[in-house]
């Protein structure tokens, strides 16, 4: 087990500086344009592919970094550049992790390369779990997958919503109900291969922030996928369902809400994204406060401004520490006995919202315009308290974990 450290090693520092260079030179200058266009920034994704940032190799290297700091460091730097563009770059990785975590060797080898495409023809992937009536309450999911034994195919029907890259993805990972009696224990994940008939994009959402990231409904109308597209395989699913049925019969373990548990380990990554956005806004505000003069002196000369910056930086550093702790715990298999993953996401996302609002205040009228990036960062920051479990759901997870009670 790697010791917890607050110091990146030399190799990590090199990667961080390389990512920071890409974020500063390629992502940040493109941010305003793609925010206005509200479109997937394909040329930027292609640039990232060329240098090796948009690739499974890079993502896997960070993901399996034994210190746990690879992913949070990478997320912070890319999202420091711009949240919408960075989500377009890492969105595929989030879907790929679903396959890495649950798929067989063969599934990993077959599908993950197709999620990324190649440098000259980049592709993206989508992870589709949320539905119109199943957001925080994942257990009320309705999308149904039924096994057609004669053909060894699964038939999937339903409507997914809020899918990042939904409809434009080459490969979709879709979560569906295979046994409605078992709540979220009766869910399974499926690969929907490129160009599968019956899968189509519904509404594309016009959003408040992260507008360079495509978010849409995904309609599944009699989508047929081969048996080999069930992640983990049928044998493993049947065993898992049999165990869940046994437990349900014996009145044992409560059927938990998946939104509250399954994403616990991935939540620090979202916390790190929030740290990146918060740090970006703080840096703009600090520079501005040192150069903007009113009453014959830089505005930072007033405690009213300087103390805000002191608070902003303190909260950002505290958020990063919570994120790094949770990431280290996750990679080293330490159980989140106090819901440390949720804690890190809750604190970092609320910090990003607060800090970006303070940055607008410090820039005054300029902060409120699109001439400066902080209004965009504030719009972007609002997503962190919503996706991968809202702040209220994080508090529920923490409170339930601490108390052992079914707090509602
Ligand atoms: C830009 C964007 C990208 C997304 N990307 C993806 C994706 O790629 N794949 C995917 O599957 N999903 C994705 N999501 C969906 C996201 O995870 C959900 O929006 C989120 O889980 C909240 O669900 P909801 O929107 O239905 O809100 P609801 O669950 O309806 O919640 C509404 C409000 O009620 C509160 N609330 C609900 N239940 C409780 C409770 N028990 N106690 C206290 N408060 C409660 C919530 O905190 C929230 O404030 C994305 C969403 C957005 C906006």
UniProtKB/TrEMBL annotation:
Residues 9-115 form the Acyl-CoA dehydrogenase/oxidase N-terminal domain. One of its GO terms (molecular function) is oxidoreductase activity. SUPFAM superfamilies: Acyl-CoA dehydrogenase C-terminal domain-like, Acyl-CoA dehydrogenase NM domain-like. Its EC number is 1.-.-.-. InterPro entries: Acyl-CoA_DH_CS, Acyl-CoA_Oxase/DH_mid-dom, Acyl-CoA_Oxase/DH_mid-dom_sf, AcylCo_DH-like_C, AcylCo_DH/oxidase_C, AcylCoA_DH/ox_N, AcylCoA_DH/ox_N_sf, AcylCoA_DH/oxidase_NM_dom_sf. Gene3D superfamilies: Acyl-CoA dehydrogenase/oxidase, N-terminal domain, Butyryl-CoA Dehydrogenase, subunit A, domain 2, Butyryl-CoA Dehydrogenase, subunit A, domain 3. Signal peptide: none annotated. Residues 126-223 form the Acyl-CoA oxidase/dehydrogenase middle domain. Residues 258-402 form the Acyl-CoA dehydrogenase/oxidase C-terminal domain. Its cofactor is FAD. It comes from the Bacteria. Keywords: FAD, Flavoprotein, Oxidoreductase. Belongs to the acyl-CoA dehydrogenase family. This is Acyl-CoA dehydrogenase family protein. It comes from Streptomyces thermocoprophilus. The lineage of its organism: Bacteria, Bacillati, Actinomycetota, Actinomycetes, Kitasatosporales.
